[in-house]
Specification:
The chain is of the alpha/beta class. The strands form two sheets. It has a four-stranded parallel β-sheet, sandwiched between helices. A two-stranded antiparallel ribbon has the order 5-6. Strand 3, helix 3 and strand 4 form a beta-alpha-beta unit. It is elongated and about 75 Å long. The N and C termini lie far apart (60 Å).
């Protein structure tokens, strides 16, 4: 009888592990799809001239100069409350930073300031497109780089 109960417990444990693994895979795939969608949407915004938006890098100025997404403006996280990029509260804004937490907090600051269309892109390392770097003579150059 005890041996039979042990087999049942083992079967239930294996089933639970298999279920947990499949849920993890599904969530991971959804996150990848979300990242690809954000990357492709942002790439479309960057390539369009007629669409008004602000892409805001909230990392430090030194990190920004090392490499940033093209068309991004640098507003360090500590200055975000005092420097707002536009007076138009309906302008689309995409915010990214060093970490997911920094990006989401910056988006929350802009939303609390009255902006309606604020999106948190997340950390800069999610970006899969070209990166603009400022050289020593302060001329921006764009290079393909997948991870900063």
């Amino acid at each position: 009888m005890i041996q039979w109960i042990q087999y049942v417990i083992i079967i239930i444990a294996v089933g639970a592990l298999a279920f947990a693994a499949s849920v993890y895979r599904i969530r991971r795939n959804r996150e990848k799809q979300k990242n690809l969608s954000l990357n492709s949407t942002l790439q479309v915004l960057i390539n369009q001239d007629q669409y008004e938006y602000f892409l805001i890098d909230v990392r430090s100025e030194a990190e920004y100069k090392k490499g940033h997404i093209p068309t991004a403006i640098n507003v360090p996280y500590g200055h975000l409350g005092s420097f707002l990029p536009t007076d138009n509260l309906f302008t689309n804004m995409v915010v990214y930073g060093r970490s997911p937490l920094q990006s989401s907090r910056a988006a929350a600051i802009l939303s609390d300031s009255g902006y309606f269309n604020v999106t948190s892109f997340g950390p800069v390392f999610k970006w899969r497109g070209p990166v603009t770097r400022e050289s020593k003579d302060n001329k921006p150059s764009t290079k393909e780089k997948k991870i900063l």
